[in-house]
Amino acid sequence: MTKTELKRYLIKQFEYSYERKRSLENWLIRFVCNDRGYAPQGKLTDIITHGCISGCVGSLIYTSDCIKFYTKYEEQIWNLICEFRESTGQTLGQFLDSFSRSIEDNDNLKVYLGWFAIEQTAYKLLNTLKSN
């Protein structure tokens, strides 16, 4: 998987450049392509295998950065959550209970939902690109 293949994927997914630039997919592709020392596929695999909680997404380690990310992509994050819940049959309560750590406050919730969105997007990207 090359950077060019990732960029082609984005163009194919989003008809308008405005939507493409503001997409969570674009954020993640930029992140994995700019991470020196890693092939994009390897970085996506690390995100899926270890999760954001491991610190493998360096720009989403601190709570304040995660909250900014959540605020920027909130609508897309909730769309991913709805898709996930529909595919698994989980209620919102079951979904929230499935996190490995307890949700202590609203900031904590935003961190976990942002991480979930990154991990789900990495999974989708990797599977889509493997199948092509």
Give the SSE map.
Elements: H1 3-13, H2 17-21, H3 24-34, H4 40-50, H5 63-88, H6 92-97, H7 106-131
Helix pairs in contact: 1-3, 4-7, 5-7
Helix content: over 70%
Number of strands: 0
Helix run count: 7
Order of helices and strands: HHHHHHH
Radius of gyration: 15 Å
Any idea what the shape is?
globular
Structural class, by secondary structure, is: mainly alpha
What kind of sheet is the major sheet? none
Spatial separation of the terminal alpha carbons: 10 Å
Poorly predicted regions are none
**Into which percentage range does the β-strand content fall?**
under 5%
Let me know the average pLDDT.
85
Summary keywords:
132 residues, 73% helix, 7 helices, mainly alpha
Offer a concise description of the structure.
With 132 residues, the protein is mostly helical. The protein is built from seven helices and no strands.
Task: Characterize the structure shown.
The protein is mostly helical and 132 residues long. It is 73% helix and 0% strand. The protein is built from 7 helices and no strands. The longest helix has 26 residues, at 63-88.
